[in-house]
Structure to design on (201 residues):
């Protein structure tokens, strides 16, 4: 993806309940398809993104640890429903809820996957913003490993996975209607940064 050299602004655009951004990736994490609404909503043209990853759209407010959780979920072909923040082409930002579907072969090898970005719970965003800021501060002043230990302790205290915590924060809204089939994330292996997983066993 072309480096657009912009600094994300504080201008927000919002997904509505009936709107979804749809991406299809190869097993090499290269973008093969986006729906028409993606280009309308984000300002990116098809040629800006096809054949690329989505790192160029990541907002700087999202900790590396949270991005690693997404990649680990994809590696293990597991769905994970968390609320994230990304940028549009002109530097504005939007919040969205993640949702994944996987196509696998008879040997359980990944062929491709679809990544949906859906309407997020507005009530959950202020709490998650504070948590993400705290994790980002830990990463910047210590390391991603220290941030992981903090997050594990945080979730362990609540006896929840990150997806479950997202659902808990979204309880004022119909969380189940915001996602498709939600697969369990309790059996994911340990995170790369430590011996224990981010997810409740």
């Amino acid at each position: 993806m072309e480096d657009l050299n912009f600094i994300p602004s504080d201008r927000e655009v919002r997904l509505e309940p009936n709107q979804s951004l749809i991406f299809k990736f190869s097993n090499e994490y290269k973008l093969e398809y986006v729906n028409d609404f993606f280009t309308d909503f984000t300002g990116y043209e098809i040629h800006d993104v096809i054949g690329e990853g989505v790192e160029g759209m990541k907002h700087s407010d999202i900790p590396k640890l949270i991005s690693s959780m997404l990649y680990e979920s994809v590696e293990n072909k597991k769905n994970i429903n968390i609320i994230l923040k990304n940028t549009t082409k002109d530097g504005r930002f939007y919040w969205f809820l993640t949702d994944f579907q996987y196509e696998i072969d008879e040997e359980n090898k990944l062929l491709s996957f679809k990544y949906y970005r859906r309407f997020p719970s507005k009530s959950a965003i202020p709490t998650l913003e504070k948590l993400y800021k705290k994790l980002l501060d830990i990463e910047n002043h210590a390391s991603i490993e220290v941030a992981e230990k903090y997050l594990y302790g945080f979730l362990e205290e609540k006896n929840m996975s990150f997806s479950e915590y997202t659902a808990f924060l979204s309880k004022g809204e119909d969380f189940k209607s915001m996602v498709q089939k939600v697969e369990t994330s309790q059996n994911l292996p340990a995170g790369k940064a430590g011996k224990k997983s981010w997810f409740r066993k």
The longest strand covers residues 93-104. The first helix runs from residue 36 to 42. The two ends are 37 Å apart (CA to CA).
